[in-house]
Amino acid sequence: MTFEWKETDETGKVTKSKVTVAEYLVKRWGDKLKTPLRQEEYNQPLLMLSQRGQPIYLLPSRCHEASLPKDFTKDANKMKDLRNYMITDPTIRYNRIGDLTATVFSQAKVLNDWNLKVNQNFAQIKAKQLYHCKVLDPKNNQRSWEDYEGRRFHHAQPLILEKDKWALVYTGRDFDAANNVVQTMGKAGGAFGVRIDEPQWVEVPSNKASDFVNAIKASINPKNTKIIFVIIPRPEEKKAVKAFLDKGGIPSQFMTSFKAQKMSLAVASNVVKQMNAKTQGDLYRISLPSFKNTMLVGVDVIMNGSSKLIGCSATNSNTLTQCYTKLYKHKMPRPQASDIGPG
Q: The domain containing residue 40 runs over which residues?
C-alpha cells in the first residue's frame, strides 16, 4: 500500500515520491514516536477501517486497545444492543471463530512471512454441561431471563413504599428534579408490581454535606423509614452522607441533580430494582434443583495500604437470593529484622 508524499525543501522546490504507511509514519511523526519503527514493522499487514466511506490504513503494531466511552456504558439501550453481540448462542460463536480462522488461514503468504501457523481444528475437551436455570415468577412458573428483562412479570417480592414511609432529600434548587424522580419511578415501578407513594419531602438549605446530615437527623425517623433517596448536587458530597446513613443502618439511594433532572424510564427501572434489592426484597427467584439445602459462600481479599480487606458473602435463604455480607479489615504484621534475609 503506497501513496503520494510531497516534500518541500528550503528553496521551495516540491519533490513527490511514493511512500508506504510505515514510511509516512516515520517522515511525518518520526520525532514524536516513543520508539523508532523496527525493521519487521515495515512488512506487516495493515488494518483497514472505513469512516464516512473513506478508507483509513493503520499499522497494527502501533495501535492500542481502547475501552468503550463512559457515556456508552451508561446508555441502557446501547448496552442492550451490545449484549446481542457479546452474549450469543455457543453454536453461533463457534461458527464465527471458525470463519475468522478460515479467513486468516487463507492468507498463507502473509502468515509465512511472519513465521506463523494457524490450526484450523478447535481444541477438543470433555466437559460437563451445567443445568440452564430458569427464572421463577411470583406464581413459581418457570420463565426465561428475557421475560424478566422485558418486564413481563412482577418482582417476587415487590417493593411497597407507602406514603411517608420513605424519604426524599434534596436542595431547594432541585425541587423540580425531585418531582421528576418521584413521577418517573412511579411509572417504571408498575411494570414490576412496585408501588411508590408520596415520600417524606426533606429540603436541605445548602449544598454542604453537613447540612444534608443535619436535615436527615432533624426530620427523618429511621424506625419508620424504609429507604432514603438523596439527590446531591455533586458526587463529592455522597461519601460523607452515605457514611452517616450506613452507620445508622438505613438503606439509601443516591443520584446527582443532573441525572435526577433528566431521569428516563430506563434509568428509573434500574433504580427501582436497586431500591427493591436494598430493602431485602427478591427481584426474582431461580429454579436450582441441584442446590437444595445449599449455602453459597464467596470470599475475596484485596490490599488496602498496609492492611488487607477481606470480603465475605454467604446465601442464607433456600432460594439463594438473600445474602449475609461482612467486611473484615486485617492489619498486616510488620516484618521483623529476623524475617529479612540477606540480599
A: 2-62
Task: Transcribe 249-313 into DSSP letters.
Answer: T--EEEEEHHHHHT--HHHHHHHHHHHHHHTT--S-EEE-GGGTT---EEEEEEEETTEEEEEEE
Contact 282, 321 (CB under 8 A): yes
* DSSP assignment of 76-105: HHHHHHHHHHHS--HHHHHHHHHHHHHHHH
Q: Give backbone dihedrals phi and psi of 79, rounded to 5 degrees, phi first.
A: -65, -35
Do residues 102 and 178 both lie within one domain?
no
Q: For the chain, how far is it from start to end, CA to CA, in angstroms?
A: 55
Written as nine digits, the cell of 62 is 502501533
The answer to whether the beta carbons of residues 291 and 146 sit under 8 Å apart is no
pLDDT tens digits for 249-276? 999 999 999 999 999 999 999 999 999 9
Residues contacting 297, CB < 8 A, separation 6+: 312, 313, 314, 315
Residues 166 and 279 in one domain: yes
Give the whole-angstrom CA distance, residue 242 versus residue 238: 6
Same domain (yes/no): 168, 274: yes
Three-state secondary structure call for residue 5? strand
Angle at CA 39, nearest 5°, toward 61 and 58?
30
Tens of pLDDT along 19-33? 787 777 777 777 667
* Cβ 206 vs Cβ 269: under 8 Å: no
If asked whether residues 179 and 265 sit together in one domain, one would say: yes
CA 276, 280, 281, 282 dihedral sign is positive
pLDDT at position 159 over 90? yes
In a domain, residue 146? The reply is no
pLDDT at 65 over 70: no
CATH at 267? 3.40.50.2300
Q: What is the pTM of this model?
A: 0.62
Using an 8 Å Cβ cutoff, are 239 and 261 in contact? no
Cβ-contact 288, 171 below 8 angstroms: no
Alpha carbon distance 279, 313 (integer Å): 17
